C-alpha cells in the first residue's frame, strides 16, 4: 500500500504545523514523515502515516538517516 501524494501535501507536523518530508527506505517504500524543525520522524505503517507525537522518533542529527525522496517534500 502506498501513500497518496495528495495526502502528503496536506499533512503538516502535529507539533509545529510545519512542512514534512517523506523519507523512503532502500526499496523506495514510504518509511517516515520527517519534521526538520522539530527533528521528529512520524512512522508510516501499512501505508498510513501515524501522526501522533507519542509515536514519533527523535532524529538526532539535522540530516535524517534515510534520504528524502526527490519531490516528496510536502508544500505548505
Automatic annotation (TrEMBL):
InterPro entries associated with the record: Trm112-like
Domain of life: Bacteria
Gene3D superfamilies in the cross-refs: 2.20.25.10
Sequence similarity: Belongs to the UPF0434 family.
PANTHER family (alphabetical): PROTEIN PREY, MITOCHONDRIAL, ZGC:162634
Descriptive protein name: UPF0434 protein SM757_25940
Organism, as annotated: Azohydromonas lata
Higher taxonomy: Bacteria, Pseudomonadati, Pseudomonadota, Betaproteobacteria, Burkholderiales
Amino acid at each position: 500500500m502506498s501513500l497518496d501524494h495528495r495526502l502528503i501535501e496536506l499533512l503538516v507536523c502535529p507539533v509545529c504545523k510545519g512542512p514534512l518530508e517523506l523519507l523512503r527506505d532502500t526499496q523506495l517504500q514510504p518509511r517516515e514523515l520527517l519534521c526538520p524543525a522539530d527533528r521528529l520522524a512520524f512512522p508510516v505503517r501499512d501505508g498510513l502515516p501515524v501522526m501522533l507525537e507519542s509515536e514519533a522518533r527523535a532524529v538526532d542529527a539535522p540530516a535524517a538517516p534515510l534520504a528524502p525522496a526527490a519531490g516528496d517534500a510536502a508544500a505548505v
